[in-house]
Amino acid sequence: MSLIECIPNISEGRRPEVLAACVEAVRRSGVHLLNVHSDPSHNRSVLSFAGRPGALMTAVLALFEQAVTAIDLRGHQGVHPRIGAVDVIPFVPLDDTPMTAAVALARQAGAEVARQFGIPVFLYGEAATSPDRRRLEHIRRGQFEGLAARLQEPVWRPDYGPARPHPSAGATVIGARGPLIAYNINLATDDVSAAREIARAVRESSGGLPHVKAMGVRLAHRGLAQVSMNLTDYRQTSLQTVFARVAAEADRLGVGVLDSEIIGLVPEAALTPTSASDLKIANFGDHLILENRLRRIKGLPRN
């Protein structure tokens, strides 16, 4: 069946009309829209949709056509790192779809995005062409502002497209990976230094928890600090483990935890019957469980 989930992150979280146009472009492409999440402080939105490879390719190109026209990174500000108007597009194989199918789609999409829009494209994750490009944060280092200089380095020439940024849309990272949980914990303080200290304590790269990426940011629209995280293997390091560690660090600093949130969707196996209350998930609902959304997919067009 080759059912694949696509989870584009676009650099827009403040203009509802731009997000609505991007979502509509995807919806018209014959895919099943699963979830949309937007944050004004991150100035970023995350879309999730599923389908077969042909429909996903159509949706991705439609999204680029809309986003490249509407989003200009030269005036973009937000707390989340980014190098592109369409910043990153992971493809995640579902059910019995092999990873090789997601890798093939990532490479096809990368080549076509570069050809149609003149945007440099990097491949990451399972689709990466070198070990240095497997991790998204390595590719995104320096952000949009440092992109032109980085593209001139021979080791950072893009996999597809020109070795110069698109003037307003920057570059894009496209890849294939397994399930990932985007999870944020909001602290009962606006002290961003506390969030950054906690992020250092929990992220793998600083000697913290395995398979956890974390950064501390300030959410201006809520007047609080946040530990923003990706759990790249929830089977090895669970939501429960991460929450307990962040809560312990927050208590140590005397700030406490206000609540938490899931960004996008979460696999059913990552939760327990009491997860919503135990983890203080403010936005929890059955609609956030990936399997619940997938059960509603019926009659997707064959491609």
Topology:
Blueprint: E1 4-6, E2 9-10, H1 16-27, E3 32-39, E4 44-51, H2 53-70, E5 86-93, H3 99-117, E6 121-125, H4 136-140, H5 147-151, E7 172-176, E8 181-187, H6 192-202, E9 212-219, E10 224-231, H7 239-253, E11 257-263, H8 275-278, H9 290-294
Parallel strand pairs: 5-7, 6-7
Antiparallel strand pairs: 1-4, 1-5, 2-4, 2-5, 3-4, 8-10, 8-11, 9-10
Helix pairs in contact: 1-2, 2-3, 6-7
Structure description:
The protein is of the alpha+beta class. The protein folds into two domains: 4-176, Formiminotransferase-cyclodeaminase, Chain B, domain 1, CATH 3.30.990; 181-293, 2-Layer Sandwich (Alpha-Beta Plaits), CATH 3.30.70.670. It contains nine helices and eleven strands. The protein has helices at 16-27, 53-70, 99-117, 136-140, 147-151, 192-202, 239-253, 275-278, 290-294, and strands at 4-6, 9-10, 32-39, 44-51, 86-93, 121-125, 172-176, 181-187, 212-219, 224-231, 257-263. Strands 1, 2, 3, 4, 5, 6 and 7 form a seven-stranded mixed β-sheet that branches. A four-stranded antiparallel β-sheet has the order 9-10-8-11. A hairpin with a 4-residue loop joins strand 9 and strand 10 (224-231). Helix 1 (16-27) packs antiparallel against helix 2 (53-70) and helix 6 packs across helix 7 (239-253). The N and C termini lie close together (10 Å). Residues 298-303 have low confidence and may be disordered.
